[in-house]
Write a structure and sequence with these properties.
This protein has 892 residues and is an alpha/beta fold. A seven-stranded mixed beta sheet has the order 9-8-11-10-12-13-14, with helices on both faces. A seven-stranded mixed beta sheet has the order 31-32-33-34-35-36-37, sandwiched between helices.
Length: 892
């Protein structure tokens, strides 16, 4: 509940510019001019050893000469000087810097060495810095333009965080001409210290920020990025535009999934899981951000269109189909209402064409009827300038209907000169307005996507599905270790089947045969007809070398098939290790649909799960949707629904609907496999045949490698699963049963009631200020955590929360701050001690060295217990770990 550690960076009370000068072409001079021009209210200190004054302000030879700490130091001097300047900052007690300086990235290693020195000095002296090689930072509300850009920014509610300084200057110019304001603009530069995670966290808590804009070119730490993005998106809309979407293609991969899933698809999946929205152009970026900032929300993606011209309505409907927006059929009662209000020549469908001579009354009746349709989630009112239409009167009708409706009403008044004042009027009335039919529908799609992605954000899947058939994780790991010990990375079909069987994933059994006689015996044992496939760890796609024969129906055919398969494989791959063939019973499912479930490993975001149309034409169909694990039922069904093949899974003609539940179960078990087997790099279940009786894999291929060493469980994943392994049930000393477990988003109501029912004194001791209940923002922050850089354990008895202990990891990665509160009626019964003991053990197991907290001097109970917690750390944990966690309790 204290002030944010980045407040000195974003809202400093004083600023020093190292490298400030009178030269107009100098970077430091430009920065100092911008600060002066913006009328920054606090003291400004130019640091220049060669000048007595800079731009009329007294200059100082170094930071120490100022004689007191400075909130923010902006550094625009050669790279060699920067580590020493950070050291000077530590000496005077300054802890926030913007490093504009370039020169930290030379290929000869000199720049990398300087960068490491900079990072080391910053950590040693507890300095947080932006950059190096960045444009700087703008906070219009603080009248601070600490950049060398010639553009400024006006006050507003958008926060821009960008990896491109050049793009930031372009956006400032673009926004200024359109009257768009900002709460902050941040250029990350090389982000050697502050990165997306911390800056997103700050922007989300900034009361002046209503939407966050991102420009991303690359991500260094996916877990930290996802953590910050998910935290921010829970509190305020986040819209992203990404550079380099069509980069160099991926290298050839062993699995179909890996060859098809590109990094852009994975990044899109990451944004979905984080609750963010993606734009493709700068114009879309601002349109989405401004629309979401108005708090217009939808319940679905069903759009009603009202227009006075058929052509724009058709264009809008076409764009809606492109974007997956449903131009829904109007219900009979809506058609009846429109029939009574419109000329007989109206379109009698959606889009609702009310004819070119439509006046305000006709627009009013049409918008009212379409808004009342229960199958419509939002309305787009479109107008083309015609001699019979008073656009201003129509705009007033649109504004009135928009303000009186829970459903969003968007407007599109086509034209420029005549329509500019009309659009200005609608903007003043806070009605979203757009210049083109396509742009209007794109805006509605952002509302629909935001709702869908926010639902995905709330999902906190477990690492393992709740099933009566627990997997044999250890058995699967032993198979993988034996293959790696042989120096191989690609599993044979038999080995892949063993891994799937360990995770209870149904697959057609196969028998490997090394000779024609063995093949005959296997076929007779399996039962005809059979499928015969070449067996080789060097051949990923058997059909590519003619290595598959289906429907082998007799013993005589088996011998011939064996010889044929071996000869074909030798001809195509003479270097391959041919081990014989596998014999499988033919799967006879006349109503079966072929799909693929796959796993690949993204360089940034780690494991990715894909689902789509399968079979030998999988690359041709290109119907795959990807998501980041872990999955739960909701996420798995969302993935299936977004594919084209999903429509084939429904009933059609003589085919009954496929068993979707069986597909969901397999996706959940694949998710479990991904969580528990960090060695798994690629996997294909192709084809996976599904019909009304369930799903079964016909073939499988897996690629593995030794995982990178990590101290974090699930460290190979971008999203931390819900840590169910941390839950435990116990008894208090008086015999009362109590459960301790990590908090979940669905605990929000229980958490709110817990805080509301605390005594005023207990709430004051916890939050160190008077509050009566948690705000919605606080409730989101407390219940929707990432389980990686923060942890919250709740104590539950009789389905009621009776206590909570939490910690948040500080930027050094070794220290965390904790908070603890117990319900008044449960105090002095051991609840707090149990929660803290468990929290301390988790912090220690995750490599933290110090836990600290603030305790009010009048909080005698907490102060008396602090000595017990210190004893736990130094005695109880020391007996378990050679690196005990130190608990430091600070008095205020």
């Amino acid at each position: 509940m204290a002030s944010h550690e980045l407040d000195p960076l974003f809202s400093p009370q004083s600023i020093a510019v190292v490298g400030a000068s009178n030269r107009p072409d100098a970077v430091g001079g430009r920065i100092f001019e911008n600060l002066l021009a913006g009328a920054f209210a606090g003291p400004l200190y130019p640091i220049n050893a060669k000048r007595d004054e800079v731009h009329g302000r007294k200059a100082y030879p170094d930071l120490a000469s100022i004689g007191k700490p400075v909130d923010l130091v902006v550094i625009a001097t050669p790279a060699e000087s920067v580590p020493g300047l950070i050291r000077e900052m530590g000496a005077i007690g300054s802890h926030a810097a913007i490093v504009i300086s370039a020169g930290f990235g030379e290929s000869d290693g000199r720049g990398a060495k300087l960068l490491q020195q900079l990072v080391d000095e910053a950590r040693r002296h507890h300095v947080r810095f932006l950059g190096p090689n960045c444009l700087g930072l703008v906070n219009p509300h603080a009248r601070m333009n600490a950049t060398f850009s010639r553009n400024g920014a006006t006050e507003g509610s958008l926060s821009l965080i960008t990896q491109s300084g050049a793009l930031a200057t372009g956006i400032m110019d673009w926004a200024e001409s359109r009257g768009i304001g900002f709460s902050s603009l941040v250029s990350l530069g090389s982000s050697a210290d502050l990165d997306f995670g911390e800056l997103l966290d700050y922007a989300a808590l900034d009361p002046k920020t209503k939407s966050i804009l991102l420009y991303v070119e690359g991500i260094r730490d996916a877990r930290r990025f996802m953590s910050g993005l998910r935290t921010a998106a829970r509190l305020t809309p986040v819209v992203d535009i990404t550079g380099g979407r069509h980069g160099a293609g991926r290298k050839a991969a062993a699995s179909h999934t890996a060859s098809m899933v590109g990094s852009d698809a994975v990044f899109d999946a990451a944004l979905r899981r984080a609750g963010a929205v993606r734009a493709m152009t700068v114009g879309q970026l601002f349109a989405a951000a401004q629309l979401l900032a108005t708090h217009h929300r939808v319940r679905g993606n069903r759009l009603g269109i009202v227009t006075n011209a058929g052509g724009p309505g058709v264009l809008a409907a076409d764009r809606a189909i492109d974007l997956g927006v449903d131009v829904v059929e109007l219900q009979p009662q809506t058609i009846e209402a429109l029939d009574g209000a419109l000329p007989v020549t109206w379109s009698h469908g959606n889009p609702v064409d009310i004819i070119g001579d439509a006046g305000p009354d006709r627009y009013d009746a049409a918008i009212e009827a379409v808004l009342a349709d229960p199958g419509v989630d939002g309305v787009l009112a479109m107008l083309t300038p015609q001699a019979m239409t008073d656009a201003q009167d129509v705009a007033e009708i649109v504004a009135r209907r928009a303000h009186g409706s829970r459903k969003p009403v968007l407007s599109c008044f086509l034209g420029e000169k005549y329509m500019q004042p009309i659009r200005a009027f609608l903007q003043h009335k806070r009605v979203p307005t757009f210049r083109s039919p396509e742009g209007s529908v794109e805006a509605f799609s952002y509302l629909a996507n935001y709702r869908r992605h926010q639902k995905l954000l709330l999902q906190v899947p477990r690492p393992n599905p709740r099933t009566n058939e627990p997997p044999d994780v250890e058995g699967a790991r032993l198979v993988i270790e034996s293959v790696l010990d042989e120096g191989r990375h690609e599993l044979t079909g038999t080995e892949s089947r063993a891994i799937l069987a360990a995770f209870r994933i149904p697959i057609v059994p196969a028998v490997e045969a090394r000779t024609p006689t063995e093949a005959l015996v296997a076929a007779e044992s399996t039962g005809f007809p059979v499928a015969m496939k070449i067996s080789s760890p060097d051949i990923s796609h058997k059909s590519d070398v003619g290595g598959v024969l289906l429907g082998v129906a007799s013993a005589a055919e088996v011998r011939h098939a064996f010889t044929t398969l071996m000869e074909r494989a030798k001809a195509h791959r003479p270097d391959a290790d041919l081990r014989g063939v596998t014999i499988e019973r033919m799967v006879n499912r006349p109503h079966g649909r072929e799909v693929i479930v796959g796993v690949t490993r993204d360089e940034v975001f780690g494991p990715v799960i894909a689902f789509g149309a399968g079979g030998t034409a999988v690359e041709v169909m290109k119907d795959q949707v990807v998501t980041l694990p872990p999955l739960n039922d909701f996420v798995a069904r969302d993935v299936i629904a977004r594919t084209r093949v999903a429509k084939l899974l429904d009933a059609f003609r003589d085919r009954p609907a496929a068993d979707i539940d069986s597909l969901v179960t397999i996706l959940l078990r694949i998710s479990e496999m991904v969580c528990e087997l960090p060695s798994l790099v690629e996997l294909d279940l192709n084809p996976l045949i599904v019909d009304e009786n369930g799903a079964i894999a016909v073939d499988a291929r897996a690629v593995i490698e030794r995982p990178r060493p990590t101290t974090r469980r699930y460290g190979h994943m971008a999203i931390h699963p819900y840590p169910i392994e941390l839950a435990e049930k116990l008894q208090l000393s008086d015999g009362t049963s109590m459960e301790i477990r990590p908090i979940r988003p669905e605990d929000a109501e229980m958490e709110a009631n817990f805080v509301k029912n605390l005594s005023e004194r207990s709430r004051y001791f916890r939050f160190m200020r008077a509050i009566s209940e948690l705000t919605q923002e606080m409730l989101v922050r407390f219940t929707q955590i990432d389980y990686d850089r923060e942890m919250a354990l709740i104590g539950v008895a009789d389905r009621t929360q009776i206590g909570v202990a939490r910690y948040v990891v500080l930027p050094d990665g070794e220290t965390c701050e904790f908070a603890l509160v117990v319900a008044d009626e449960w105090q002095r019964r051991g609840v707090g001690s149990r929660l803290m003991e468990r929290l301390l053990r988790i912090a220690r197991d995750r490599g933290l060295a110090t836990m600290r907290g603030d305790v009010l001097t009048e909080n005698l109970l907490a102060r008396s217990r602090s000595s017990r917690f210190v004893s736990i750390c130094h005695v109880g944990l020391d007996a378990i770990s050679p690196q005990p966690l130190l608990l430091a309790t600070l008095s205020v």
